[in-house]
Structure formats: structure tokens, C-alpha cells
Amino acid sequence: MTCTQLKQRLSTLSTPEELGAIVGIQRGVEREALRTNHSGGLSARPHPESVGSALTNSMITTDFSEALLEFITPVSTDANETLAQLRDLQKFTLANLDNELLWPVSMPCYIQSQDEIPLAQFGSSNIGRMKTLYREGLKNRYGSMMQAIAGVHFNISFPESLWQSLQRQAGDKGDLQSFISAGYLGLIRNFKRELWLISYLFGASPALCRSFLEGRETDLPFKSLGKGSLYLEYGTALRLGDLGYTNSAQSSLRVMYNSLDEYVDGLKKAISLPSDLYQNLDDYHAAQPQQLNKNILQIENEFYSPIRPKRNAQSGEKPTEALLRGGIEYIEIRALDVNPFADTGIDIEQIHFLDVFLTYCLLKASAPMSWDEQKQTQLNLDRVVNEGRNPELTLLRGEQEVSLRQWANDIFVELELVAKYMDEAYGVSYYSDTIGDMATWVSSPEKTTSGRYMAKLLETNSDNGTFALSLAKEYLSKHQQWQYHSFDDAHLTAKAQQSLQAQKELEEADSVSFEAFLDSYFQA
């Protein structure tokens, strides 16, 4: 049964005077990719200086490892431009790598030991050293193998005209930014309730190289494939499960999303409370530090969440300080696996789906979320991660067990209404086309990204790594043939050189010791 609030809001937004309010959605994508050699082994080379400084280049940087590249697009209202920007950045980077490839899947390549994974280096400035020490802490807390997993982050903000329209509908006479922050938090709660659908549709890590486990025991019902791969028969996104980019030590953190103050308070407690688990690791006061500090979280970014409220921070400002200063500016979706069937790691259909799904999450009613309900959303995600393509799978919907198919079909009925509205507003048909196509994936799990991925492996009995390596080589050729669209070689080369100079200036400007710098940072 369609949500009353959703229908009412869509009806009002569809009037001629309000129809254009949603036009102008802004997006950005952050795509991670490991650098590998042509045998599929992890690169041991440093981040190439020819693509600039990982510390100060805003579009080409590194994540956890020196070998884990991250491509960051500028904000754009044109989804096709965003994908073109990603291709430009990848083309430029591949041209500046010495015969290396970009790994096209989330789970790492052939890595025999986590000691092979070099920590990202950001130079000798205090902020650069802090970034590397933070990663040293991640390595010592959770292991490097988990940190070598790649993902795609999707950033979105809705135009102010939409917020103004929704505020008028609500009869809210208060501050617009407060209304916006509350609206984004409602979106986040709804997203968390139905996050499992993202894993079902777009999960792309049902298999992994056996070396990833590094001898760890698991009770997951893995099957063997090829010479050294493991897979779950109905799995979707191992990256989001217990083996992947999660932190069981954080499971007790009560970071909740019913108000901005509640969210910030939960994070602040986590970065100020000492953890019994990490007391034996030396912090930055020691001569050979192993982590920044001994708290549950070293810094706010250590909190692993599939979705985050964000505001662009000013220099030296912590993420929570930015949120308290100006409210929520945009939302970061962190639940996407790298799409192996897209040279950019994400394709246009996924972006169209996310536009509709996130608009749906915004417009429908969003009750406060209790801690018990938040834990239930994680249980549902875990079920879909491990056996999402099982036609018999059930999920907890409130107090009831319902089939994934029934719940997903109910969601798609509402998504079709949102897609129709967005098509009318933008003068297109692709939103309805995308939702109509993906609705068929519910009863045909072989159409999902993980279903297609496993079909490719099983039809040839290929190792996960062998298939990924073939894709990496295919995409190398594709990027070499790509003609620059938004940027060009001269622009990106100049930006790289400017970033190297900016890093040098940061290093020369430091006037206090590393310890004094961190003392000041953590006391602020």
C-alpha cells in the first residue's frame, strides 16, 4: 500500500508551479581502485608523482594504501558528465602509470600477506604524517587486508528549490537549513531501513580470492571455484559483511540519526572514549606510535557507515564541527561495490536508480528510528549480503518475517511513482525505464550484478582474480581509446604540479612539532 505522505508530496510537487523544483540534483562520485601489475599482483610502487600529491590533489588521491587510488569528481548536475570526468581521470592516471592496471572489482587482487599492502604516504607535513599514522592505526586494529577493499561513494544533494517547496507543503515557518538537515536525516533513516535492496541489486562481491582470508576461520558456507576462489552460492556483497569493510568493535556504538545533535553526540563519544581493545597499542606520544590514540575511534572517519550526512569542512575543521556550524549539505552513500561491468566502477543506470531511490527515501514518511530497529536493519543487510539471491530468503519487516521478493516488489511500486514524477520534471523517460527494468530483477536474481558476476565465473570455472584481470586489461584498452571530455592532459598535468607545490608549501609552513600539532587537534 503506497505511503500516504509520499502520494501527497508527489501530487503537490507535480503541479505546474512546483514541477521544476527537483531539477538541479547535484552529484559527485568517489571511485577507489587498486593498482596492480599485469599478473594481477598488487603494485609495490609508490603513488606516481606525475599524477600529483595524494595529500593536495582534489581529484586523484589515495585511500588506505599507497596502491589504492581514489578518483574524485567535481560536483555536477549532469550524471553523464560525472561518468565522463571519471573516465578522464582514469585515462590520465593509467597513462602515467608504468604498465599498471586498475583493479575493476571491490575485493582485493592476489595478496599473499597483508604485509604486502603499503600504507599511503602523504609527505612530511604534520597533517600528512597524521593521515599515515591514522592508517597505521587502522592496520593494527583491523588488519590491512580489509582496508584494501575498494568501493564507490556516491554523493548527492537536492536543490534548494525542492527544500523550499517541501517546507511550504509542511507549513514549516522555521529556518530552512534546520528543515533541510531534518529532511536529510529522515532520508538516512529510510535508506538504512531498505539498504538491503542496494545490496541485492548492485552487490558485486559474491566471490573472493582465498588469500583474502589469510587463514582466518569462517563459518560461511563457501564453495570453491577454479584454483583458489571462494564464493557464496546466493551471496551479493561480501564487502559489506563480516569479512568486509565492517568493524564489529563498533557494533555497540549508539550513533543514531533522529536529530543532528544526537548523531554528532554519538560520534563525539566514540572519538573520546578509550577502548579496552586498543590500550596495548602505542599512540602518538610514543617514539614508535602504532595509532593516533587509544579511543574507540581514532577520528570520526573511522566510523564505518553505509551512509553519512556531510558538509564541506573549512580548513582544520572536523566533520562534526562542520555539521554543527552549517547543517547537513549533502549525503554520502558508501554502500556500493565497484561495478565490474562498468569501466568507471558505476554506470548510468545505477545513478538513475539512486536518484529515484534517494528521492523516494526523502519524500516518504520517516519515523524516528530506535536502536533496536537500527540493529534490525543490520540483520536484514547481513542476510542479503550472504544469501540475497536465495528465492526463499525472508527479512524482518517490523515484527513480521516477509519474503525479500514481496518487500522489494512493494518498494518498486512506490519507486515507479517517484520515477514518473522525475521523468515529468526533467522531460525524460530514463527514470521510469530504469525502475521498470530493475523491477524485473526481483524475480530474476540472475539479472542482478552479483548474479551476472557469478554466471561469468561459473560458466568458465574461472577464478575470481582471473576474470577481474581480464576486465582490467579490457578497461585499460578502453581508457586508452577514450577521448578526453571534461578535462585534458594539460589541465590534469597542471593540477598535478600545483598539488605538488601545495604539499611543499604545507611542509614548509609547519611551525610546531608533530606531537604538539596532534595535541592541539585532539584538544580542539
The topology string of helices and strands comes to HEEEHEHHEHHHEEEHEHEHHEEHHHHHH
Q: What average pLDDT do the residues reach?
A: 95
CATH topology-level name: Creatine Kinase, Chain A, domain 2
What is the 3D shape?
globular
Query: Approximately what portion of the residues adopt beta-strand conformation?
Result: 5-15%
> What count of domains describes the coordinates?
1
User: CATH class, please?
Assistant: Alpha Beta
**Are there runs of 5+ residues with pLDDT below 50, and where?**
none
Major sheet attributes: 7 strands, antiparallel
CATH architecture: 2-Layer Sandwich
The Rg value, from CA coordinates, equals 23 Å
Distance linking N and C termini: 50 Å
The oligomeric state of the chains shown is single chain
Structural class: alpha+beta
General description of the model:
With 524 residues, the chain is α+β, with helices and mostly antiparallel strands. The protein has a single domain (4-523), classed as Creatine Kinase, Chain A, domain 2 (2-Layer Sandwich). The chain contains 17 helices and twelve strands. The chain has helices at 4-13, 79-95, 126-142, 144-147, 160-170, 176-193, 196-202, 260-272, 319-326, 348-363, 371-387, 404-426, 430-439, 449-460, 464-481, 489-509, 514-523, and strands at 26-36, 60-62, 68-72, 101-102, 152-157, 207-209, 223-225, 229-231, 307-310, 330-336, 394-397, 400-403. Strands 1, 2, 3, 4, 5, 9 and 10 form a seven-stranded antiparallel beta sheet that branches. Strands 6-8-7 form a three-stranded antiparallel beta sheet, covered by helices on one side. Strand 11 (394-397) and strand 12 form a beta hairpin. Helix 10 (348-363) crosses helix 13 (430-439) and helix 12 (404-426) runs antiparallel to helix 13. The longest helix is centred in the last third of the chain and has 23 residues, at 404-426. The model has no long low-confidence stretch (mean pLDDT 95).
